[in-house]
Amino acid sequence: MTSHTTPLDSTADRPDFDVIIIGAGLSGLYQQYRVRELGLSVRVIEAGSDVGGTWYWNRYPGARFDSESYSYGFSFSKELLDEWNWSEHFAPQPETLRYTAYVADKFDLRRDIVFGRRVSSAHWQEAARVWQLRLDDGQHLSARFLITAIGALSVPTLPLVDGIENFKGVSCHTAKWPHEPVSFEGKRVAVIGTGATGIQTIQEVAKTAAHLTVFQRTANWCAPLHNRKITDEEQRAIKAGYAEIFQRCSENPGGFVHKPDPRSALEVSREEREAFWEQRYAEPGFGIWVGNYRDILTNRESNALISDFIARKVRERVKDPATAEKLIPKNHGFGTRRLPLETRYYEVYNQPNVELVDLNETPIERITPTGIRTSAGESEFDMIIYATGFDALTGAYDAMDIRGIDGRRLKDDWTGGAKTFFGIQNAGFPNLLMVMGPLGALGNIPRSIEFNVEWVSRLLGHMKARGHTRVEARAESVEAWMDIVRASAVGLLSNEVNSWMTGVNRNVKGKSERVLARYSGTGPEYRARAEAVAAGGYRELELG
Ligand code: NA7
What we know:
binds ligand NA7, 18 helices, eight-stranded mixed β-sheet, single chain, alpha/beta
């Protein structure tokens, strides 16, 4: 370990800012608000031309919440809760983008944000105790603390097939969707990918496209969203009930409003189980996933029963039995990957203008200038939409040249899987604080963001009060957290399945094998442990 003898904030060592935050999405905006409150100087670097992060980039058709709108917004400001009216139970992307802009304006955040710039590198300077940043325009900036608020799913990935760049029609990844309206009328459209994003996109495109071909590699289990407008009466009830809504979120393992049933699916009679699942299937949101019997995601038998229930629903809803079978996953059980919520998704396949291509039968060979060639031949398209996901969790970190003590690269440190302390810090990278970093709590994201930001801010306040200028997670603290992460993964069926949640993305070099990619324990447990670190005076961290 390096010795830390640097004097506190000498004039020569003073960096440009106390804090630089990368990203002006929900994490970055709230972190900025809290940092300012601490009286620290702050600059936010944002790649987009406006605030919003995920909701800025993902403006593809049909993009919307799968969490109840009123459980998704910030809870920290009563005034904000009182002022903002969500129009639908699951708000569409344009509304959420307006919300982020509203937050930025209300708290006067824009004046410290630099838009349209990416951070290319961030190097720790041990002697001066500063992070030295280089932006993509060549500008250099320094800060005592670097806070990354760069998202868990923010680096889009394209299939590793030849010819993508030579396609003569319009092609686009869903996370790089144009700002101008896109019409599908009269067009032959291809959608590649059937994750949460692909499913939202397909439902929307199918409404107007002349012909839509869906290229599916892995079928996903889905459940109905049941979205609708929020009535005036409901609006009043939501406003009056925010305390209870957030209380419920804080009790749910993933931060959602739903309440799990403490019983095993095997404990109840077949009739009772079926009636319960019918009810959950008819209700809005993730209830059937995170408000189900306690063991559907851990017990193979229980999981097989719920999978069979959902498979029957797909067979009822899709007229052509062969298509229905293709849409029913055979290689993983219900809920073991992120559950896409849908609105008449299965009925899309009953439309004469929609066709499903199973890539397991006929893999894509290449993108041609006029379309897509699979092993069965070539089809022509006017538009190809890539709903092919993200270099998740670590991708946004890998995209920057981040170096800690002695020039150690974060990317090298994370070869074979990230290691962190609560998803917030890493040994060897002092004063680097991650909001929603790898191996922290995910779930209903803003609920985790608020906790994460408040934890980071409390630490900064603690340091400021004591004149500390350096914080680093001890290597043994990182190991201790990784033990907890490892233990939390045991017995969860989702950790036996390939998905971004287990670190697999076959479009990214080095990500073809499953790793310990996320903390899969509960939110309440995560928060209790993190609170204990703060309450105990941060003994797990080296402060100086
Ligand atoms: P996902 O969930 O990672 O889904 C990506 C989809 O794209 C999935 O169906 C993939 O199939 C498919 N895919 C990826 N690469 C290819 C190639 N090369 N060929 C064919 N199909 C491919 O990303 P989403 O954007 O849908 O969702 C990400 C998260 O955002 C989601 O969990 C929500 O939290 C919001 P695969 O399953 O890998 O066979």
